[in-house]
Design a protein that fits this description.
Elements lengths: L7 H15 L12 H10 L5 H10 L7 E11 L4 E11 L5 E7 L4 E7 L9
């Protein structure tokens, strides 16, 4: 089998484009967490990142009355066996799917996005 030969300049350009795309994730909107949003999250799942997730949901203008469920996905570094990221899957009364808030190992917000038919306020 012959190996595909790609000129170094083309490979470097492709890598640059890939890294630029990764760097274009806009930080999520944040605000002082609405106590009602935080309480709704706490009722559904106990997690030390709930205050950070609540700040993102408040910044995205998602009201506590719309939250019907919450679950967390955990991402671990398999070599060091430590948590490196959390995905908070927030299920809403008003729509299918979920709004997902990603935070790092220290609960700092990374991004917010909608999955499986959900939409963020403002059509995002």
């Amino acid at each position: 089998m012959k190996a595909l030969k790609i000129p170094a300049a083309a490979a470097a350009g492709a890598l640059t484009l890939l890294l630029a795309a990764c760097g274009s994730i806009a930080p999520p909107p944040v605000a002082t967490p609405d106590p009602a949003v935080l309480a709704a999250l706490d009722r559904n799942a106990s997690n030390s990142c709930n205050p950070s997730v609540a700040s993102v949901l408040t910044g995205a203008r998602i009201p506590a009355s719309d939250i019907r469920g919450l679950s967390y996905g955990i991402y671990r570094d398999e070599f060091r066996d430590i948590i490196v990221r959390w995905d908070a899957w927030v299920y809403l009364n008003s729509q299918p799917g979920a709004v997902v808030v990603t935070v790092d190992e220290d609960c700092r917000p990374i991004q917010i996005y909608a999955r499986d038919g959900a939409k963020l306020p403002g059509g995002r």
